[in-house]
Amino acid sequence: MNLSRHVERPFRNQNSGFSLAEVVIALSIFTITVLVLHGSISLAKLAFYNQVDRSKAEQNVKHTLEIMARDLREAKQGMNPITCTTADYDNPQNICIKTSSSSAVLSFKVPESTNHDTENTSYKTIRYDWTTSWGPYRRTIRRTEISSIGAASAPVIIGRDITAVSFSHSTNTIRLNLTSQNYTHSMNSSQSMMVYLRNNT
Hints:
Layout: H1 20-72, E1 82-83, E2 96-99, E3 103-111, E4 123-131, E5 141-146, E6 156-159, E7 162-169, E8 173-182, E9 187-196
Parallel strand pairs: 1-2
Antiparallel strand pairs: 2-3, 3-4, 4-5, 5-6, 7-8, 8-9
């Protein structure tokens, strides 16, 4: 009589899976990975936007300085900027400057036309204003032209978000100092430009 050999196989639970501890560890690792990736992406975006805001602030100041310097190079009086009274700003007999922590004025005369008849040349006034006072022109630099007969143009804004303005001068130079701030990410840009004045009196 042949006896069949009984092979005992180990019992296996067909429904076995990950243990609770393994699931918790896996979820923890996944969560940490997602958070690290999200943080890295957020930091990269912030750095990018900050760079864009800084570039905008720098371009704003540079553009404003270039316009002001271009006009100053044509100033009729030249050579000796002075601090003028309020009454002189619209009809300056010299380059008039005024600066404080809350306002600034720069005004001067330039030829009204491009003709070369210096004896009969008429002159218009270029006036720049800046203030921190609340209103439509707060923290802007405005450019106003006043013709030789006293007709004033509407102010044109050439610079925005300008938080500080100062002018310094010597006998034949004037330095323009501007600071601009982008308020989205508080990015500041401070620049200055030296303008050499001509004696066109």
